[in-house]
């Protein structure tokens, strides 16, 4: 008979056996998600139990929840160099990105500023699909390309700007190859292109992959809107951040109550927000030292792969990029087979961004970079984290040749 899911208080239920990966897995997919930081778990715990109040409540437990929200908002703002009133909490980066693109574009079009949006070909699918939907809503969208390293062309953006351009959307660091984009330079360009007395072209950046690796200061970046996802830097899944510069034209995507300063209706996820703030504070501290250590491990992995395995090539830049991401094309195989072969050996990696790993198609990022399709379909993303160790890198280098050989044999059989 199955064990009851609702056991009486105090009863002891048999615990499930540990899964294999909890003991042995080497996790190299931190760009997809990261483990919850203990400090975030600790910050969340009270709001999952005794401090369960709704921040909109006027009684003591509601005021307590509102105070926790205010503290978290101030902490996040301090990490980003922003004002607390410029921080909106969301359900994740997808919502933040969609909210920024839809809310800003709609508000500016309604104000008569224009109808033209510029975005890049290497954005996360949250940005790409949002831009496509803007076109369905009647906006004109220009998609700019990148060079072979994955760097977006400022000159192409400059040429694309025209009368009626209202918004530019370019990510801070790419989630598949790690290339860091020239966002401060882009912000300066947009300021120069603003006509005296005319409307300002708004700049949004998806900065999801940056925390823990890059300092994020919205003033130094010069952005008007910036999106983050908590689970990428050790916070909980289901919580995100949207920075929206004061006085930026905006119409909320979610309508209802007056939460989040009337910019995002819905009862706030107090536990998630508390965990997000705690995790971001840790992630924002010591980025230089953390990045230097992980960069050494990434280069160790890269050099070991190139030395041990024939017919491989690194995709994207190796300078001016995130220190934790390595994208490698393995000739003569399909990436899903290599992911599976590594999984069997206790190693977790990705064939691209997590949001696209369930569909078989070449990475749109690699295609935009001009990577030949035969290389793109065999490309793997290794993304290290701050918990990655030299011993894990060495273990992967021992396991990888056998996994590649198995994936290549499978590919060869499929073609005969």
Provide key terms for this protein:
three-stranded antiparallel sheet, alpha/beta, 13% strand, 15 helices, Aspartate Aminotransferase, domain 2, 2 domains, Aspartate Aminotransferase, domain 1, 41% helix, globular, iron, seven-stranded mixed sheet, 416 residues, metal-binding, disordered N terminus
Range of helix content: 40-55%
The main sheet orders its strands as: 2-8-7-6-5-3-4
Q: Alpha-carbon distance between the termini?
A: 50 Å
User: Approximately how much beta-strand content do the residues carry?
Assistant: 5-15%
Sequence-ordered SSE layout with sheet pairings:
Layout lengths: L19 H5 L1 E2 L10 H7 L15 H21 L6 E4 L2 H18 L5 E5 L4 H12 L3 E5 L9 H7 L4 E5 L13 H11 L8 E5 L11 H4 L3 E5 L10 E5 L14 H4 L7 H15 L2 H22 L3 E4 L9 E6 L4 H10 L2 E2 L15 H5 L4 H4 L2 E5 L6 H26 L1
Parallel strand pairs: 1-11, 3-4, 3-5, 5-6, 6-7
Antiparallel strand pairs: 2-8, 7-8, 9-10, 10-12
Helix pairs in contact: 2-10, 3-10, 4-5, 11-15, 12-15
């Amino acid at each position: 008979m199955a064990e009851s899911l609702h056991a009486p208080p105090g009863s002891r239920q048999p615990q499930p056996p540990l899964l294999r990966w909890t003991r042995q897995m080497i996790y190299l997919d931190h760009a997809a998600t990261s483990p919850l930081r203990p400090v975030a778990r600790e910050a969340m715990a009270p709001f999952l139990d005794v401090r369960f109040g709704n921040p909109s409540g006027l009684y003591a437990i509601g005021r307590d929840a509102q105070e926790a929200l205010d503290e978290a908002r101030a902490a996040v703002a301090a990490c980003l160099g922003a004002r607390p009133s410029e921080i909106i909490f969301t359900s994740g980066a997808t919502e933040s990105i969609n909210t920024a693109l839809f809310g800003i574009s709609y508000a500016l079009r309604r104000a008569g500023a224009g109808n033209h949006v510029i975005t890049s070909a290497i954005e996360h699918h949250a940005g790409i699909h949002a831009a496509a939907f803007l076109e369905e809503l009647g906006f004109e969208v220009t998609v700019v390309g990148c060079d072979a390293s994955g760097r977006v062309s400022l000159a192409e953006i400059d040429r694309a700007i025209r009368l009626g351009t209202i918004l530019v959307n370019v990510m801070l660091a790419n989630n598949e190859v790690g290339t860091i984009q020239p966002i401060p330079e882009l912000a300066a360009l947009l300021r120069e292109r603003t006509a005296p007395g005319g409307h300002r072209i708004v700049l949004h950046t998806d900065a999801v992959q940056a925390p823990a690796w890059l300092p994020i200061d919205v003033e130094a970046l010069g952005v008007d809107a910036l999106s983050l996802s908590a689970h990428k830097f050790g916070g909980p899944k289901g919580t995100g951040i949207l920075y929206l510069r004061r006085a930026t034209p905006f119409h909320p995507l979610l309508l209802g109550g007056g939460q989040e300063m009337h910019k995002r209706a819905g009862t706030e996820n107090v536990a998630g927000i508390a965990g997000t703030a705690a995790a971001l504070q840790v992630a924002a501290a010591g980025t230089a030292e953390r990045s230097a250590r992980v960069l050494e491990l990434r280069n160790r992995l890269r050099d070991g792969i190139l030395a041990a395995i024939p017919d491989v090539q690194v995709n994207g830049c190796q300078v001016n990029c995130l220190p934790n991401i390595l994208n490698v094309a393995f000739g003569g195989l399909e990436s899903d087979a290599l992911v599976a072969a590594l999984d069997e050996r206790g190693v977790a990696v990705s064939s691209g961004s997590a949001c696209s790993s369930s569909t078989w198609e070449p990475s749109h990022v690699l295609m935009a970079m001009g990577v030949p399709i035969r290389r793109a379909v065999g490309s793997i993303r290794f993304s290290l984290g701050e918990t990655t160790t030299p011993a894990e890198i060495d273990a992967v280098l021992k396991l990888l040749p056998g996994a590649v050989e198995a994936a290549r044999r499978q590919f060869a059989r499929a073609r005969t």
